[in-house]
Amino acid sequence: MENIKDETIKELKIKANDIRKSIVEMLYLAGSGHTAGALGMADIFTYLYFNALRHKPENPYWKDRDHLVLSNWHICPVLYATMAHAGYFKFEELKTLRKFGSPLQGHPHREFLPQVDTSSGPLGEGLSQAVGMAIASRMDNGVDKTIYCLVGDGELNEGQNWEAIMLGAKYKLDNLIVIVDRNFIQIDGTTEEVMPLSVLEDKWKSFNWDVQKINGNDFREINHAIYHAKNTKWKPSVIIANTIPSKGVKEWENDYKWHGVAPNKDQYEMAIKELNMLGDKLK
Amino acid sequence: MLNQNLKLNTKIFNSDVEKKSTRAGFGEGLLLAGIDNEKVVSLCADLLESVKMNLFADKFPKRFIEVGIAEQNMASVASGMAAMGKIPFMASYAIFNPGRNWEQIRTTICYNNQNVKIVGSHAGLSVGPDGGSHQMLEDIALTRVLPNMIVISPCDAIEAKKATEAIARTKNPSYLRVARNDTPIITTEETLFEIGKSQIVFGPENGLAEVGIIATGPVLYNALIAAKQLESEGIKIKVMNLSTIKPLDKEAIITLAKETKRIITVEDHQVAGGMGSACAECLSEFHPTRIEFVGIKDQFGQSGKPDELAKYYKIDTDSIIEAILKIKAS
Questions:
Q1: Is the pTM of this model over 0.90?
Q2: For a tag on chain B, would you pick the N or C end, based on fewer CB atoms within 10 A?
């Protein structure tokens, strides 16, 4: 829908806050993992799973479903938490993240968690997989599915992405929507220190993609961008979503050191307290 | 003598034996696989005619994807297509596919267990004049270490065609190794091909063999010529065509080693990690046997005619004869 109701936005905000609490808890229990990106992308994941994807959590293999490829798999706690909240599996499973025998592997694996479409981990490959899915989907005369692909900004350092970006434009994949988590951080520092990406939107535009730049923590902007992308013809779409790393926990926000670490007990308790207060305000 | 039960080409030892490249056999097999199953699609990286994918692309233009010179992308795009139920065949030169894109194959194809067929053409020294940069001698090693993967190196164009059709019917990631040059036709349309099954293509008329040769790919022909020459000198040799390198036909290899007590492996590939190594892994575990390895010994190739290179790098008929005499004397 082009316009989103205030009531829907309120519901999504509450849901995203609950998902953030799940993320912080599961990372604390796992003792390792990637916090900043997962919290930063919680709003986009909430929007996709509760307002955009054509899917049936109770029937995950439904043949007419849309597909989602998470390329920067290290932020998978947000995927797992959102899937649990959407009803794909029990909340209890979240506590097993990164543990031996868990369906929730450190990076998602479709043999351990068949509800995900791809197993991956190494950066720079998901976009190619999504392009392949979009091409294959076009070959079949059936439901016009949308393929969503989420990539990190740091992983755009990998040259393979740009091969995929060229191919997506060549085949005019207007059934493909890519969302770049533009949080300006990667392991060794800011993206602009490690490997400058600016001006990122100009790069995609010159590759003949439809480009939108939004605040990735604002549901109204997310809604508008997805609506526009779904209605774009003859071009694949990219949404460059500026997100705040560790969004929701003030002390951690915008600090790249939270990229690859999990909270300890004190940090966990502080974060949950803050998120609980936020949740109370939203209601 | 040739094993007549296999209905092999009876003209194999004639000087005017028919020749055709294994890549041409792949091209024909891909067309047949495409006709047989509409899920079969193909991808190529700017080498359409070179890898003989043009037969398929002409017949099924909507099922053919040209990705440009981008083998890493090609592998992951193929993975995505397989995730949607397609059976993608992706082809390029073996040096780039599975050379350049090995990690994409590992992660997005094998780790994902996606049904992608990887075709590496122009493998081995037989590329000739292009030189060492393009002579892929490490592809068997690269592919056979990957879980879920099937690895096949057909001996001639007919076997390549059948292997292509056969891998299209499996659900596994598969690697098919083919070569550029026209090489002798060893099998016939009537020869059975089954993934994972080796064949004894040559053996003594009576009695037990004293040397067993295991060969893979078109150099099987060199092994046959060597065995034929020494047969007339009274040396009893069995020659095995080991076209499937993974899954390995362990039972047949052990049986051959038990009979001959001496094994020679022959391949147009590095000895390290190649087919000979696969046989050695099997025999050292189940039936330790003396092995002579005919293959490339930790070197890169160079420009030259395929025959010159085979002689220089010691994978030609004379080198196989040398290895037979050496192992027999030991």
A1: yes
A2: C
